[in-house]
Amino acid sequence: MNGLVMLIAAGVAAIVIYKLFSVLGTRTGEERPPRQIFDTKNETKESAKIIDITPIVMPAPKQLDVPQDVAEQLKAVLAIDPKFSTEEFIVGAKAAYEMILTAFAAPDLPTLKSLLNTEVYDNFAAAIAHRQAENHTLETTLVGIDKANLLEVALKGTVANVTIQYCAKLIHVTKNEAGAVVEGDATQMIDVVDVWTFSRNLKSRSPNWLLVATESMDETFS
Questions:
Q1: Which of 8, 18, 44, 176 is the most buried (most CB within 10 A)?
Q2: Strand, coil or helix: what is 111?
Q3: How far apart are CA 88 and CA 34, in angstroms?
Q4: What pTM did the predictor assign?
Q5: In 3D, which of 93, 120, 125 has the Cα closest to residue 109?
Q6: Cα–chain-centroid distance for residue 208?
């Protein structure tokens, strides 16, 4: 597909491998390295989730099994962009999930601006402004992503919207100016189901997908 997650200098290759394994788990060695689909030029070391995209010759990954209605939409997407791969997209979407959660907590507005459309960015920025007005800080740890399911693919003209359901384990802790916990528990994991939609014009020269909608059972991102 049009390029998946992230390019970085060879000097930090060790960090690349460590961070990738921490989010996506152990890989078999037979998968095709995903290419960049999200703009990560503004990442900090803390929020970065990096994958080596050095080109190698390997068979294209198989498309994942999806419901029939989604499969029909994927055919329409593939007619416009034959390189699209659901497997590669989900790998990139998992990495983007942690990047966005981390950037929201940091807060890292430049990274958020590069990954979100205007409406979602404005909502996130308003939540950050409210948190800062209260002199609160947010600490978010993504313990793991149990599932990342492809729920829906919608195509309008050449604009594709791909919806992913994340089932994840997180730790959210909000602290006041004195460092006291006012919400959450640093020792308690919570199960979260987030439904995020990413969008891209398949004819665009830019390979980047943007987060355009979110639904969540977690109040922080509802």
A1: 8
A2: helix
A3: 5
A4: 0.71
A5: 125
A6: 12
Both tokens of residue 106?
A: 């940091």
- Pair 166, 143: CB distance under 8 Å: no
Are the beta carbons of 149 and 87 closer than 8 angstroms? no
Q: What is the pLDDT of residues 80-125, one digit of tens each?
A: 999 999 999 999 999 999 999 999 999 999 999 999 999 999 999 9
Decide: 159 and 206 in contact? Cβ < 8 Å: no
> Residue 24 — left, alpha, or beta (φ > 0 → left; ψ -120 to 50 → alpha)?
alpha
- Pick from 56, 41, 51: nearest CA to 13: 51
Q: CB burial class (10 A; 0-12, 13-18, 19+) of residue 137?
A: middle
